[in-house]
TrEMBL record:
Organism expressing this protein natively: Mikania micrantha
Cell location: Membrane
Top EC class, one word: transferase
Regions crossing the membrane: 436-456
Name of the featured protein: Receptor-like serine/threonine-protein kinase
Amino acid sequence: MKPIHLFLFISIISTLWLTSTSISTITPNQNISDGQTILSDDEFFRMGFFSPSNNSINRYFGIWYNKISVTTIVWVANRQTPLNDTSGVLTLNDQGTLMIIDRTNRSIWSSNSSLTANNPVAQLLDTGNLVIRNENDLDPDDYLWQSFDYPGNTFLPSMKYGFDFVKGLDRYLTSWKSDDDPSIGEYTNRFDRNGYPQILMRKGSEVEFNSGPWNGLRFSGMPNLKPNDIYTFGFVFNERELYYKYELVNNSVVSRLILDPDGKIQRYIWIERRLEWELYLSGQMDNCDRYSLCGPYGICNIKDSAACGCLSGFEPRFPEQWRRADWSNGCVRKAELSCEGGDGFVKLSDVKVPDTRRSWFNVSMNLEECKQECLRKCNCTAYASLDVGTGRGCLNWFDDLVDIRSYPEETMQDLFVRMAASELGRKAKSKKRVRAIVIPVLVFVTVLLGICLFVYRKRKQKQNKNKNDYIFTGLDSIVVFNESNTVNDTTKEDLELPLFDFNTIANATDNFSDECKLGEGGFGPVYKGILEDGKEIAVKRHSRESKQGLVEFQNEVKCIAKLQHRNLVKLLGCCIDKDERMLIYEYMPNKSLNYFIFDERKRNSMDWSKRYSIIIGIARGLLYLHQDSRLRIIHRDLKASNILLDKDMNPRISDFGLARSMEGSDSRANTIRVMGTYGYMAPEYTIDGIYSTKSDVFSFGVLMLEIISGKKNRGFRHANHDLNLVGHAWRLYKMGKQLELIDGTIKDSHVQSEVNRLIHIGLLCVQKYPEDRPDMTIVVLLLGSDIQLPEPKQPGFYTERRRPQEAESSSSNPEWSSSNHLSVTYLQPR
């Protein structure tokens, strides 16, 4: 029999065997023909021949997700040698080598293992790893070959990304040429072992992005790589291996990291509910991540109007180019170093450390030993600790310092830059001059503030004012007296916010007529206005009777002026005229959420799909405030009346008068001035004045349950108990009757599985202790996926209350903005 006929005969026999058996392994001389596939044991991954798009005639052998509706390839064998027809066959020979054979019986790709095989089998594992092993040997260290050692553009969980020095392996990512061409593209993302290891993303031979070295917590240039509830990660570097690896915390989450054809490093998570991959994070975040943007001894700060600046003690090499924003030539020293003694170091905090390809490291030194080691070497330009967590390990640099950037809102790494003695002396003299100026000024200001405080107390006694009055001292400065009788002088920030003329607003609102009045909030009345160009606006006018004052006005302007998100209300400007304080917003024609869900007639128009969409929108807006905005913002007054609805019924979070911003990695604070709305405030905030992102999560959970039920949490009444709405929902959940919570008007439109899931998530959000509640990143993920949910614990305020003589109705009058039932509590320190 001719070889080609023998090959076809074997193919036919193996085809019949494969189609009648569900297996994850193939044995020698068993084939996979085009049109056949093999599944992993858990049926999560599938492998076989495919074309990358309908427009491509090329055929490749690869691995993809089996349970995801959007075909997503994670590995390709013959990237560089595609077939142009469906004649291809994958086979395993007796030597343990996988081969792809074309119609001429020619091998176009093989696995090429040099190890000796004994009854080899090839198996597709549940991790998506295709391995060749000896039949009775399941030890991963004994695999003859595995696809995880030869990744393409995708980095999967459990994969080791980096070097195996013993086996001589270098595992790195290469981009596809395009979305429908898996051949090797322009970009690589790969560990560089010169100096201390770091991952460099290159376009051809040119470095485009540098991850920075591992600093004990994360890569120095990737501040968004933080501990989370989705995956764990780690770094190993010893004499045998150098690799980075991640593992999923929950196997129901599907996540992958890719290097796309445009050179972007991106992590995606599959959202089953929307049947799409959602971007979770990117390696390159902004312009400062462009490699060496600021040149040698330059530092990039994305928050500065000119992103690049010179390190302290340095100046632009070519000032004229620098002024034209051509920073590539970087900076030079103002004073040259001397190796004869006297050099010192200037500390840079919270930075990405420079490119480490010209560096030396020692894992056992402490920071002082590292400093002395650098001083001993004339060409050492900087030093840093290897591990920011323990303070151990030493890094010395021996060349120009390149690719430094500042992370002003993150706790990152400290870098100590070598400086000439003369430059250090100049800094010391400068500090003395500053002290000579600052100390007398501080004394003068202290005396002046003392006089102001004395005058204020006298006025307070005469006028018998409340302890928390506020006094205006002009438009450019605000003096605030708080409950501890301290004084803060806050200069008005340049927020690039338009100032409206009082007459313009008065004309737009028909001189604040009752016909234009939309409602009354905690800040004051809200009016609809129409500007001369026909633009509709909403005007919040401060009321003299309001318990909210200047602080809330200033706070709302500062918090929301530069925020841009589809689920946040847009602040158009403000008006400050004598005693008048007004905020001008875009007009929301559908008023607020409580106008619909708490009104017996209007909530009929809110079917389940609208309510579900509103919940998702609020969650995304809150996630933006907590994680993605310029500052981490805690709203502190999230409730139905502060959710406005645009013309398409999309939710917009509004009213930032009580909001607080957090710097850096802070996520909680406390206050003795507790302000908010009862029924929405978290227990730790109401009782101890502690607020955090988790207190907003509690409010969101209450709001979810209100939207589902059409009832208010505070004022809720039930014939069989005296629990509030949250307690009622918890009681029903424990009885397995949570569907009884839903509003009767949506019984015909609701999706039972969605309602069950959202009630469950709502109860997770209102758990008593903040550490038990998920953060908004997880909430958004849970809302958009079918990930298994943990069991909720008892909610906060789960106690029956005394029933008053006259029960307050669970519906309310419609209002446009902050509730006029705002509760203000002053807690004295214990």
